[in-house]
Model the fold of this input.
Amino acid sequence: MNRAWKAASKTVEETLKIVVLVKHVPDAQFDRHLSGEHNTTDRAESILSELDEYALEAALQLAEARGGEAAGNQVIALTMGPAAAVNAVKKALQIGAFSGVHLSDDALAGSDAAATSLALAAAVRHLGAEAPVDLVLTGMASTDGETSLVPAQLAERLGLPQVTFAATLDVAEGRITARRDGDAHSDTIEAPLPAVVSVTDQINEPRYPNFKGIMAAKKKKVATLSLADVGVDAAEVGHSGSLTVVESAEARPPRTAGTIITDEGDAGIQLVDFLAAQKLL
Amino acid sequence: MANVLVFIDNPGAALKKSSLELLTIASTLGDAAVVISGVLQDGAAAELGAHGISTVYVPSTRDLDDYLTGPKAAYLAAAVAASGASTVLLENSFDAKEIAGRLGIKLNAGVITDVVGVDADGTAHKSVLAGSYTTTAKSRTGVSVLTVKPNSVVPAEPVGEGTPEIVTVEVPADAAANAARITGRTEKPASGRPELTEARVVVAGGRGVDGDFGPLEELADVLGGAIGASRAATDAGWIGHDAQVGQTGKTVSPQLYISAGISGAIQQKSGMQTSKVIVAVNKDAESPVFEIADFGIIGDLFKVLPQATEEIKKRRG
Ligand SMILES: Cc1cc2nc3c(=O)[nH]c(=O)nc-3n(C[C@H](O)[C@H](O)[C@H](O)COP(=O)(O)OP(=O)(O)OC[C@H]3O[C@@H](n4cnc5c(N)ncnc54)[C@H](O)[C@@H]3O)c2cc1C
Ligand SMILES: Nc1ncnc2c1ncn2[C@@H]1O[C@H](COP(=O)(O)O)[C@@H](O)[C@H]1O
Done:
């Protein structure tokens, strides 16, 4: 475990230092493609992953409840990705993050979840070097990778409690309480800070950037970190450091519309005829 | 020594369909053993034996369920070491994916989620980008960890009778250090319908049902189906969040998906467009759902669905 985590438990009035993980992903409103030797996702038309906006909103609410930036709280948006990924951080700053960090290095290209979590863990440790990070907040899944592996793997690497798929989140007296909804039951989860927390889209209603936020973002800092800065060897990440390899990718033929009818009083019967013809009854 | 290890989280008295599917895949990959959390009950033990499982690893403690995923991953890592397995199969639930993820870090093993098929050489098949691509992926490490989606294979029939040997695996002493605790649990009432992700038929409703899932439930019941919903319907509180299909809900690929009063937003489509047959009922001819429907009805769901239900009942006498 990293020394930076050895912070004693927090007391009531304390401020929070929160790192929010934001990913730059292809916009799902457009066609998305895999290409190249390594079958990686094309990054044209990319945006801040919409599921990460919930994590950012949760962070802002926690910080605001403790007096915001003026009181010494921190909400740091962190992304890992190629040059353009800085746009995810910039968007997060417009929405309200206090500062931004972009971990960028050519050697990171093609990282799978294991390599991504390794690099992000190193970046979080780096950010915790001076003053420990209390909370790492993430989305429930990236809208491109959709594995939901990164938060759990990050918690494992950092040796921190993992509170994932939080549908509610409270932090008080150095402890987290969250609700996690499953199929058969709903659980209350508790953990001490520091911790890694992923949140669902049930947790809040993310705010939009307003004019003031957009103007303010221009003055906010984005620090760029390289692998060397966070002490990661290039061979541990990217294609060489990934533990899985995508061997082939094939576009599925898009679904095409079939028969469309307008109900003239017997559509229910026609539906049953269709189901019978398809042997679905 | 087994080369494939199947993890079953709290098997209970009888194995779930998804667990049988994992056993079926495991049997195509070599010599399979099973590792469970919780207590091995007689019924489950007999079923495992009947499916040719000769070894079941059980944990030395019962309190793994008091924590969120981390300790289970630590226990599973110990079981992998005990079994000598090079492939670990888990289901594709949120919990199982996280256990897989943490196990992957512990063992430096590649993890592949959302798998729909596994070749004999360990190549995993999955669909990505909301079903718009199919990919094959492989682990580059000695151990590979795969989480497999339900309905990926037809579960094999039992092969005979047998009593598996039970081997206790010591849960590492520090497994629960730094783990989040589960301090409260509210059980949800069971619907009596099939599990959404496993169902052959899903009847899903959106804002268009306007608070009344009755006609959908009646149709689902004559078809033996599960009920799904759009986020608009779950957000409105008309039905539980666990019924939500889509990007932030369940991904389903049933034989038949009947979409009623759902417009077909991208986040909804990403959870259902790999369904075999899609039927859409919507008042608005311009709804994007019609672009992916095999059979689309421009009409009022409150007329079309009850008529279909009656017709099915009539034809079945
Ligand atoms: C981050 C994020 C995640 C999301 N995740 C999901 C998700 O997982 N799943 C999901 O579904 N959505 C998700 N959404 C929401 C999604 O974008 C849409 O808003 C939602 O799917 C719309 O639900 P709907 O189709 O029921 O409602 P609407 O878009 O309002 O459509 C209702 C439809 O019902 C039709 N209708 C009305 N009355 C009748 C009638 N009597 N008979 C027949 N048709 C009728 C109307 O013509 C209309 O097409 C997500 C959104 C975001 C931002
Ligand atoms: N490259 C990345 N940069 C920043 N955050 C990431 C990155 N990849 C994943 N994450 C975070 O991890 C969450 C889950 O992603 P995933 O495991 O890929 O589904 C996302 O919602 C992000 O918060």
Remarks:
- Residues 17-241 of chain A form a domain with the Rossmann fold fold (CATH 3.40.50.620).
- The radius of gyration of chain A is 22 Å.
